[in-house]
UniProtKB/TrEMBL annotation:
This is Glycosyltransferase, GT2 family. Keywords: Membrane, Transferase, Transmembrane, Transmembrane helix. Gene3D superfamilies: Spore Coat Polysaccharide Biosynthesis Protein SpsA, Chain A. It comes from Mesonia phycicola. The keyword Repeat does not apply. Pfam families: Glycos_transf_2.
Amino acid sequence: MIFLFLKYLQPAYYFGLFRYDGSSAFSKINKIPLTVIESLEKDNSFSSDKASEYDLSWQALQKGFISQNDTYSHFEKLPIEDEYRFIHKYFHPIWCFYVLCIRLLSFKNPYREISCYLKGRRAQRSNYYLSPIKYEDYNDFDSELINQRPQITIIIPTLNRYAYLKDVLIDLENQDYKNFEVIVVDQSEPYQSEFYQGWKLDLTAIHQEEKALWLARNSAIKMSKGDYILLYDDDSRVDSNWITEHIKTLDFFKADISSGVSISTVGADVPNHYSYWHISSQLDTGNVLLKKSVFHQIGLFDRQFEKQRMGDGEYGLRAYLHGFLNISNPHAKRLHLKVGSGGLREMGSWDAFRTKKWFSPRPIPSVLYLFRKYHGNHQAKLALLKTVPPSIIPYQFKKNKPLLLVGVVLSVFLFPLILFQVMKSWKLAGDKLKEGEKIEKL
């Protein structure tokens, strides 16, 4: 971690890990262009120059500086007071107090911790996301890749959502970029073959009897003709320039992956960073364009996530670790309807941390499989500590912060039950780790 205390607040963060080649996501300050440095907020109140340097590098990444060259390959240990100053600048006071509590319960020197925490409170909260780095050349950029008209393969798994899939295909008919094929992997019961007749699309429908999301995507990728794979969901709406913006962003940034943003009608608030380009710390298989060569080099989706959660998160992390550049693309957005029936709703849980039954594992075992496989058991435990208590509140109330605090309080009273759920998930995740990944090569 560039700052040690991020391990408490972002315990399963992509960029908390070094890539396989030893590089990180954080650029060395002396290698960042002066025009970018001038847009950052220099903080001379850190006690060490190295903390001030790391702070600028962290800002640059968060504000949208995109580069994979000349990054840090290791981070020096910083004074504790600088760690507290950093989290007070960028995180809500409640989370800063949360870190203090963990540190005290870990038998750290209470006098030093409390005094450094109080010093850190003097830091002014940063609103760095209000002034992201702008790429003004993008609008006038004449994409050679678009002019080459590469073939795109759009892959859509579907399950009992014909009414919504109709709108999806209408949106695809209206795309201003035309050189694409569509592969729909239909797991519906009953299967309606007549639905796929009459569309003005290069459309292939496959009837898959097994209800398996990652099998569906892997099968479609293997039969795809395109040099680029565009993964999409069956309950989404997009503008007519959706494909064009994905291709243009890949070309403009010389990237391997364009992760379009998803605006959900249900769930948490839209994050501030969805409004500007930056190196993405996630991959959403409901709206992402990838070079097919990525699949050739690192394989297909891990079927250990079948009927569970975070298979796309694992793929995004795997791509990051192998050095592929993934851009969060605000211009290639979709409206995610998150309808209450069909799709993953019928195959598993809507949410990674919320259970359907009292004695079901919490979180979904695949989540702990991901955390433990890549981040280790210690970080997985910190992730549980941060994410499980708020998950007591139902999904539809994720935006209600007071209710999330109620969930934290309730978790204390429900501790024996929650401990049982977590231990069950931990064991099932351990079984997955023993069995090993199920990643097929392309």
